[in-house]
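Feature request, filed as a ticket because there's no other form

It would be nice if the structure record came with a short human-readable summary line next to the tokens. Right now we just get the raw output. Example of a typical job, pasted below so the devs can see what we mean:
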Amino acid sequence: MVRRYNRLLVVLHVAADSGAGVAAFLLAYWVRFHSGLIPVTKGYPPFVQYLWLAPLIGVLVPGAFHLHGLYRLRQGRSRIDDFFGVLVGSVLAVVLGVVSTLYVQTYYVPDQLKDRGVFEVSQLVWGLFLCFNVGLTCLTRVGVRDWMERRWRAGIGLKRVLVAGSGDLGRLVVDRILEHRELGLKVVGFVDDRAEGGAHLGYRGLPLLGTLEETPEILHREKIDHLYIALPLEEHVKMLGLVENANREIVEIRVVPDLLQIISLRARLEDLDGLPIINIHDVPLRGLNAVLKRTMDFVLASASLLVLAIPMGVLTLVIRLTSPGPALFRQERMGLDGKAFYVWKFRSMYDGAERNSGPVWAVEDDPRCTPIGQFLRRSNLDELPQLWNVLCGDMSLVGPRPERPFFVDQFKQRIPQYMLRHKVRAGLTGWAQVNGWRGNTSIEKRIEYDLYYIENWSLMLDLKIMWLTVIKGFFHKHAY
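Raw output as currently delivered:
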């Protein structure tokens, strides 16, 4: 049911996005060639040539949005998130459009038609299309969202849900349903054997309606459409009887497996020659997504190294002049899939600072730091050489910060989910860092934010983190 209602919402968004894309493309043509706002110096291409391309645009736009993950159901997605998502998706649509039209024009359009400009699109039209598509798509998405919300508030199409199990798993089910009201689900209450003692307390204002044995009567009395069975592992023996009793009523049954103790990332159902397999550590950063992220890392790291070459040269000279020893040093860190690599940094401590003590956690006003090193660490400028690690593929611009193997061995014993942060490349900056969890702060909270980033990765989220890194500045009170 959730999948069906999600598909309904996706279909509405796909149709709206496709229509907005076509409208934006044709509007861009009119503004460029017929509005009089922009001088035309090379003639007027016939409107029908752009009209022929409209179906292609209508497919490319939702296709690009799908690649960017805009049609995935996510918790707490704001309109600002939608805007940045649409912006990145529209840029991807323009890139696909340019490549597609150039490819078809080069290899499939006869020479006599090439002279007439068939499958040729003005660069300025592509630029205008990008602007118009972002604006129109955001407006249509607001319209779709408002229409869906009015529909649910009016009670149209709502499905009544009963949750069997009022423990942690059942409450998690309720939380998810209430966070996604666009699914059209209304939770009526719980059934649980805890009701035998006369307790009627539920959760989030939802009552405990009765025991598991009373489920058939409650299903009929409350006119339930969907039963979610969310029993803990020790009570799953009762599930078969509950399913048998529920089958006497016309109700759809959904079983929520109690995997909370082992699932910490997004789980995905896979197929092994007809045998269902649950992948409990699935991450979205695979395949094409990994290629897109790596491409962005390579391009931005290369550009940053070119722009920062002179400032980094000045820092190198200052470090050499203010304390003996090399300006750069490398340190072993743990990266993707738990493989060790050497990270490059500007030296901020006296040469050989850990020769006798071994690996030691940095503290505020650390006596091992040089005078210029204090500034470098407070401003995070000591991390700039890691752009080379990004260029080489050891790191990414955005991801969980890499840790030294010595400390990893300690943390993984204390924090069960700690090693899951190595499912992606380590980053120069990350979701935990821009939210204040770095340095001498809670490791548990840092892991929580790192796992959120891994599970919800998108190009839009990467750009948002980069933007927050710049906006919030490089100085941080826990950077030392």
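Something like this underneath would help us a lot:
Residues 216 and 245 are 6 Å apart (CA to CA).
The chain has three domains: 2-153, 159-261, 288-471.
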